[in-house]
From TrEMBL, chains A, B:
<feature type="domain" description="FAD-binding PCMH-type">
    <location>
        <begin position="37"/>
        <end position="214"/>
    </location>
</feature>
<keyword id="KW-0809">Transit peptide</keyword>
<keyword id="KW-0560">Oxidoreductase</keyword>
<keyword id="KW-0285">Flavoprotein</keyword>
<dbReference type="InterPro" id="IPR016164">
    <property type="entry name" value="FAD-linked_Oxase-like_C"/>
</dbReference>
<keyword id="KW-0274">FAD</keyword>
<dbReference type="GO" id="GO:0071949">
    <property type="term" value="F:FAD binding"/>
</dbReference>
<protein>
    <recommendedName>
        <fullName>D-lactate dehydrogenase (cytochrome)</fullName>
        <ecNumber>1.1.2.4</ecNumber>
    </recommendedName>
</protein>
<dbReference type="InterPro" id="IPR036318">
    <property type="entry name" value="FAD-bd_PCMH-like_sf"/>
</dbReference>
<dbReference type="GO" id="GO:0004458">
    <property type="term" value="F:D-lactate dehydrogenase (cytochrome) activity"/>
</dbReference>
<dbReference type="Pfam" id="PF01565">
    <property type="entry name" value="FAD_binding_4"/>
</dbReference>
<dbReference type="InterPro" id="IPR016169">
    <property type="entry name" value="FAD-bd_PCMH_sub2"/>
</dbReference>
<dbReference type="GO" id="GO:1903457">
    <property type="term" value="P:lactate catabolic process"/>
</dbReference>
<dbReference type="InterPro" id="IPR004113">
    <property type="entry name" value="FAD-bd_oxidored_4_C"/>
</dbReference>
<dbReference type="Pfam" id="PF02913">
    <property type="entry name" value="FAD-oxidase_C"/>
</dbReference>
<comment type="similarity">
    <text>Belongs to the FAD-binding oxidoreductase/transferase type 4 family.</text>
</comment>
<dbReference type="InterPro" id="IPR016166">
    <property type="entry name" value="FAD-bd_PCMH"/>
</dbReference>
Amino acid sequence: MTLPTELLSTLETLLDSRLSLAAADRDHHAASESFHRAPPPDAVVWPETAEEVAAIVRACADAGVPVIPWGTGTSLEGHALATQGGVTVDLSRMDKLIGVRAEDMQASVQPGMTREALNTELRATGLFFPVDPGANASLGGMAATRCSGTTAVRYGTMRDNVLALEVVLADGRIIRTGTRAAKSSSGYDLTGLFVGSEGTLGIITELTLRLHGQPEEVAAAVCAFDTLEQAVECVTATIQSGIPMARIEFVDEVAARAFRQYSGLDLPGTPHLMVEFHGSPGTVREDTGRFGDIARDCGAKGFDWATTPEDRNRLWRMRHGAYHACLTLRPGSTGVVTDVCVPMSHLPAAVAAAAADIREAGLIGPIVGHVGDGNFHSQILVEPGNEAEIAAAKHIATRMAERALEVGGTITGEHGIGIGKRSLMAAEHGEGWQVMGVIKQTLDPGNILNPGKLVPDRA
Amino acid sequence: MTLPTELLSTLETLLDSRLSLAAADRDHHAASESFHRAPPPDAVVWPETAEEVAAIVRACADAGVPVIPWGTGTSLEGHALATQGGVTVDLSRMDKLIGVRAEDMQASVQPGMTREALNTELRATGLFFPVDPGANASLGGMAATRCSGTTAVRYGTMRDNVLALEVVLADGRIIRTGTRAAKSSSGYDLTGLFVGSEGTLGIITELTLRLHGQPEEVAAAVCAFDTLEQAVECVTATIQSGIPMARIEFVDEVAARAFRQYSGLDLPGTPHLMVEFHGSPGTVREDTGRFGDIARDCGAKGFDWATTPEDRNRLWRMRHGAYHACLTLRPGSTGVVTDVCVPMSHLPAAVAAAAADIREAGLIGPIVGHVGDGNFHSQILVEPGNEAEIAAAKHIATRMAERALEVGGTITGEHGIGIGKRSLMAAEHGEGWQVMGVIKQTLDPGNILNPGKLVPDRA
């Protein structure tokens, strides 16, 4: 696609040097942390205000040119790739903290602010923003993907922690959804509609986020089990007992070996749980004691408690460094990352079936998971450029998704649809996917907002 | 409106005696627990399956006749009134528990099942459904209104506790939204779109609900404060400290007098908080201790702890009986019930301003609230049929809503829009209200699903 001269001149007048057609800038916005690939966008723009975003969208709408919002580029399903060309709207200059209302436990931020930057700003307030997908993603991107991560079992996902949005629609209108109240029954949940819409219904230009109190006391532990079933039984019993886990992460024997190799930690090559507790000193003592009893009943051994911040950081650095740790199991490889979520009772069978598929394909694929939610990932290690291996890994990923659907689960717990999972949408949603398409068509009749993602192709 | 003969004959063939044109049945479905009034529907039907609901909707769509879903009729904003005539779909025969999956902490129910019936069925499982609006409403109606109640501060609202739905659309298609997984990033959140849509986008025919573990230990207390500000300061400090309150309810001095008069309880005529804690014996001991310290720091006196089930039931029966208790302050009166929700920091001023307006109007209007969420209600006592008083009460309600909007709050925390709050929607949502209208028009082009509610009138 070559961009129309009139559009380029409008954008140039509006943005001056914040419009780029340079190959380096365009290529940077064609990068993807996963195996998804697409040509670069035709242009990149760096707006600084919602009004500029609206003017960009209006100009692109007039020209019928795609608009692709860009946060930090850490999405895993090709969400921010310009698969149909067009203008990538890089929101990294809209990275300001607009305000913290500590008494209301809320913050308003621009979409390009990252979660780590927000938490750094919040340090002195006694509050924090808990959603933690691992990557230091932008908060706008996290909302657009409806992401979650290790702490969702306690604090919820982006669905639960976004109170209100400012959004630029496909015709350039700027709307506000939601309020600063903790709850509302006031009409359709437009905030909830835009959270998870992956830039296909509008571009988020401001978020009002729910904050939480920094816990007075934090304790973390890692413990080993002989079998997957024991570890999952422990998770189920813990959740049912109502112990408010802050994190409860599964690490399979393959991933445990990678962690040991990478970090030098003394982990046996068996399934593990990594857990964290937040509360007052008294409740954390009580919760850790109760969890310890349940875990031992389920066959846990070798508890390693981390109560100092240094020990805890070491533990969670290891978990968040899983991707790179696991790559060392096959030097030179890259990972095809899967992401399904199933009802808890189906978790042991789903994990076991995935592991068996990976073994049968002769591949290495460590499995980790946010098991308190029934969400797990395999990182199937493939040789870059080896199309046969990538196809085999994708086939395993598809089988995992199909099996998740068979037991009432979902094809993606937290990574979203993008281009990677569109082919599975009809299987999960049936006619509901058509309803999504109709909503998209109504709110974006010209199909300019991140086209080719999430919804069905138009007839 | 007289129903077309062809429609009547289709419905009769389909439903036989489960179609009624009798005045008694129609009048029963014109009743409302609030001051909203409308003529009865032209017919009432009692379907027993989703397929029957779909057939009813298809027949009404063909005839261009409104379809109004009906749960238990406990809505407060006229949601289920047939303001434009048509067929009321009474879902009370679809009241079955479809299944409990205890290991997954989920239940599937038909929409006509009430929350009390569900909790009775769940008694032996160790699980319960926590959303508690006071009334024994149907679960389908609760979802359609996105209601909440006293326990939302701990367990969330219907938004947080509905995992999946089966919905009949305006053209009779039956779709399923959501999954049985605890979370998902799979496309637009259609479940969230239908929750709170008040029957205007589809008729809910099945719900998958999130259950929670029955707490091992429960403790409740009521404590008095000298001033509103002290009570709210106590709430703010408690929430910020991270103490996981199960309920934290405000009762103003007028309501406290009504409770004393009605139940014979020894409550001083000052503001009170009623609180409840859920957990293990150890964590409840810790939490109640910490709350007690905070409350005393804020000036609380006269703690009355209720640890036996009998004492607790007496306490919450009093709170849930607030409506009838408050009516005794003015024998023969009826209540105009308000429902706003504001950011916590604005709660003292919002409550004080409402109380002042009520006093200035020469009316009696006790105030109670789910203050952990910033949500409060006044029940303004008016003489039935006294239009001047009703107008004055409505004016106060409108002022409360306007003031809530001025501080970033919402016009309804949990009662919904229906016909009662439509005139305030533009003020809360601006262009967003038009977006709601466009979504409604797309999914219900014939405007047959609960027309005249929630969204703007069509051009």
